[in-house]
Amino acid sequence: MTAHTIKIGIPGAAGRMGRMLIREIDAAPDLELVAASDRAGTDAIGQDSGLLAGTGSNGIIIGDDPAALAAADVIIDFTSPAASVAHAGIASSSNTALVVGTTGLTDEDEASLRAAVDGIALVYCANTSVGVTLLGKLVEQVAAQLVDGWDIEILEAHHHHKVDAPSGTALRMGEVVAEALGRDLKTCAVYGREGFTGERSRHEIGFETIRAGDVVGDHTVLFATEGERIEITHKASSRMTFAKGAMRAALWLKGKAAGLYDMQDVLNLKS
Length: 271
Known about the structure:
By secondary structure, this protein is an alpha/beta fold. It has helices at residues 16-27, 49-53, 81-93, 107-116, 130-144, 168-181, 185-188, 240-252, 263-266; strands at 6-10, 31-37, 62-63, 74-77, 97-100, 121-124, 151-158, 189-191, 205-211, 217-225, 228-236, 259-261. A 7-stranded parallel beta sheet has the order 3-2-1-4-5-6-12, sandwiched between helices. Strands 8-9-7-10-11 form a 5-stranded mixed beta sheet.
């Protein structure tokens, strides 16, 4: 490790994303795992996090006290809405930067997250993939050029274990489109259609959801008008893309002022 190594804490260390994050940290010369936690009562408690992740023993034992995460420079959280809010409180009290990639947060959860991290640097994004971040920028640019007469639909597909729908990424794409068009997504979103629906409203933004097999994550934003259509698609074939993006965010946070950031900030896409 170098003098500039960033110390990382991983809650949910025994989960799929937790183990991928540990593998990515192990391969990164500028990152060091210093704390790993998981829910009390799980079989992972007391186990070596490196062995569980398949990287070999690293001496970091998975504990059930998330307060241990305060030893890190950056906490990377892909857990659950309630757990993420709790971990944000730990980060705030210890002046630790935070990356949150948890999905399914309600408006109330997000408000609690923001309140909990007042005074620290936070990257919060429902999808930390670099490719999805670029997708969002492209969607924003296309939507900004549209005039009346274009229909917009957002299609997403994920594995059958996913518990929230539409995905956080799909909802974010909808927000990007709505903001570019001066609409309120809460009033113009339509989630699925069934039966005699009548003619499509020109101002609605439609969402369609698929849950099947082991699909990691597919997102398509469709812009259609008479005579032509534009489809912008991103497909993830491995969850490792989310881990890599989170690592990039953790490195980017070094030395950043307190505030709320997203992956577009990390990639310097805002102007």
